[in-house]
Amino acid sequence: MDVDSVTPTIVKRPLLSIQCDWDEALREKDGTAWISCKEYGKNSIHGKLTSVKSSENELHTIEASDRFKVENVTPVSLCLSHEDPNCRCEFFAPNKIFTNSSEKCCKFRSTGTVLRNLEGHIWDVYHCSFFPSGMVVLSAGADMQIKIWAADTGQAVTDAAVVDRGKNIVSVSKDGSARLWDCGSGSCLHVLSKENGNINCCAISPVDIDVGVPENPPNEKEVGTEGKLLLLGSESGFLKGVGLQSHQQIFKHQCESAVNCCCFISSTSVAFGTQDGKVWLFDLRAR
């Protein structure tokens, strides 16, 4: 047989689709979710799933319309079919610890109970996901903002700085913490500073001053932290310098107003802006 003359047989199976948040919708009493079947060369068939009897955490009886059939229901999956024997699919419930919301916030859930609202977006939230460490949450919304949250406190990250070539980053947040992260694993390597008020800004640079010596050997995942100074500006009005590798406080300068931004001018001087509209130059050698 001439292989080149063989015409391949293409099997066009119908495709089942379901509402993306069906597991949430069908947990509600009389909750509904849409279902559709698309067969090649034909118009799509649209139907509706209705939760006839449900409890808070478990699906019980689901009814389907328009010749769709519910084959099986479990707390984490839903098996559906249509009249075509090839049209059958099992849908697994998304593992949503954080759920999107139209209430301008992310909801931290456990078995259906809201444990914490992460408020900060000004429009609907479209996406939420955990970093691999399980300690940080990323959210994105219709307000064109991407926010990073501390999962344990629910506080938003206010600023971040890249260390060296990007193996590590430092984040500061409204819970008053400055944290050093490993980008590869998403894990928090150190809490570099912990204050009572919000930390508004941060900056990192190598400097020509003594930034201390670490008491213990640096973490093997730290890259490029030696000889660098971390600047922190706070809502309570201080500018603080911390040795990035030593984790030691190098200086703390109190201002009359909140420090909103900071940057390095050179290896010995920095600039920072305060809430009262002033911009300051600070000589690190005269601290």
From TrEMBL:
Q: Which Gene3D superfamilies match?
A: YVTN repeat-like/Quinoprotein amine dehydrogenase (2.130.10.10)
Q: What is this protein called?
A: Proteasomal ATPase-associated factor 1 like protein
One GO CC term on file:
proteasome complex
Q: Which SUPFAM superfamilies match?
A: WD40 repeat-like
**Which stretches are transmembrane?**
none
Spans of WD repeats, please give: 118-159
Q: Which PROSITE patterns does the entry link to?
A: WD_REPEATS_2, WD_REPEATS_REGION
Keywords annotated in UniProt: Proteasome, Repeat, WD repeat
Supply the PANTHER family for this chain.
Answer: 26S PROTEASOME REGULATORY SUBUNIT RPN14 (PTHR19857:SF19), MITOCHONDRIAL DIVISION PROTEIN 1-RELATED (PTHR19857)
InterPro entries recorded for this chain?
WD40/YVTN_repeat-like_dom_sf, WD40_repeat_dom_sf, WD40_rpt, WD_repeat_multifunction
Similarity field? Belongs to the WD repeat PAAF1/RPN14 family.
